[in-house]
Design brief:
alpha/beta; Rossmann fold; eight-stranded mixed sheet; three-stranded antiparallel sheet; 10 helices; 27% strand; globular; binds S-adenosylmethionine; binds zinc ion
């Protein structure tokens, strides 16, 4: 990880700034954190909550599914909105930091960071399997393990843009680490998202109250500045459907044998709706 990325981080024990020497990040009070050999930094406090995030097989399935490009429309919307927000912000700086909370494999972050040589990224995730992937996803992206429900180990005002895609949202902490005038871009599924698969495959249904819950969870810390529905029809072959299920929490609720049987009765390829809302927020 690049030392400049580490200097955006703060010590999870005392909150002082971190700096990188050789392969160890440390604060002035002497708390230190070694870079893992796979390149990520683990900043979970030692008395961690036991929360693990996505498993190795979920991350594997997500990596392969995303690489086939079916979610490119979501990535493209994030790229457009990030460019707009950054140009409105008009940073004179030659460095812009984009943080993804619950970054998974870092697919979206890498795409957005890749659009400008002044852009740098930090991928935050509680899963070590995700962190390993994200550490290699782009030369200007650093990967950090942390629990986004607790304190985010970033300095105040560190990020110009925060991405949050199908991931946990800690409004107060995201507002703290966002620079003045910076933007939070949130992607949430709509009810039509993957609807053709939900009933047949026993996947977890999109919560009808999701929109209201999103607004409530961010209200107080953020105000909405815009939103866009991203919708298209994907043509998925059976292996793609299998990966799509395997990368979601539904994977934990369905027996593998049963899943294969249910997929077998679907048309091949099957048409599946992608429908998400990208909403943009500014700290209130
Ligand atoms: C549905 S995945 C989305 C990943 C990525 N944004 C994407 O769309 O490809 C949710 C991610 O949030 C992570 N996660 C879950 N709980 C978390 C927490 N408390 N703190 C940080 N990350 C968490 C999971 O490990 C997982 O990688
Ligand atoms: Zn410290």
């Amino acid at each position: 990880m690049h030392p400049d990325l580490v200097s955006a981080l703060r010590c999870p024990v005392c909150g002082d700034p971190l700096g990188l020497t050789a392969r160890t990040a440390s604060c002035p009070r002497g708390h230190s954190y070694d870079l893992a050999k796979q390149g990520y930094l683990n900043l979970l406090p030692s008395a961690s909550t036991g929360i693990e995030g996505d498993s190795a097989s979920m991350i594997e399935a997500r990596t392969t599914f995303l690489s086939t490009g079916h979610y490119t429309p979501i990535l493209n919307a994030l790229r457009t909105h990030t460019a707009q927000r950054l140009s409105e912000l008009g940073t004179a700086s030659d460095r812009e930091l984009i943080v993804e909370v619950g970054a998974g494999t870092g697919y979206y972050l890498a795409g957005v960071v890749g659009d400008g040589s002044e852009r740098w990224g930090l991928a935050l995730d509680v899963s070590r399997y995700a962190a390993r992937r994200a550490a290699k996803v782009h030369p200007r992206v650093g990967s950090v393990i942390c629990d986004a429900w607790r304190e985010i180990p970033l300095r105040d005002d560190a990020a110009q843009v925060i991405l949050n895609v199908f991931a946990p949202r800690n409004a107060e902490e995201m507002a703290r680490v966002l620079a003045p005038g910076g933007s939070l871009l949130v992607v949430t599924p709509n009810q039509a998202h993957l609807a053709e698969l939900v009933a047949v495959l026993g996947m977890v249904r999109v919560d009808e109250e999701k929109e209201r819950r999103l607004t409530e969870s961010l209200a107080g810390s953020f105000e909405r500045t815009g939103s866009e529905v991203v919708e298209t029809v994907m043509r998925l072959d059976h292996p793609a459907v299998e990966r799509l299920v395997a990368m979601t929490p539904s994977a934990r609720h369905t027996e593998p044998g049963e899943l294969t049987e249910r997929i077998a009765v679907l048309p091949d390829p099957v048409e599946v709706t992608l429908s998400v809302t990208l909403s943009a927020w500014r700290a209130a």
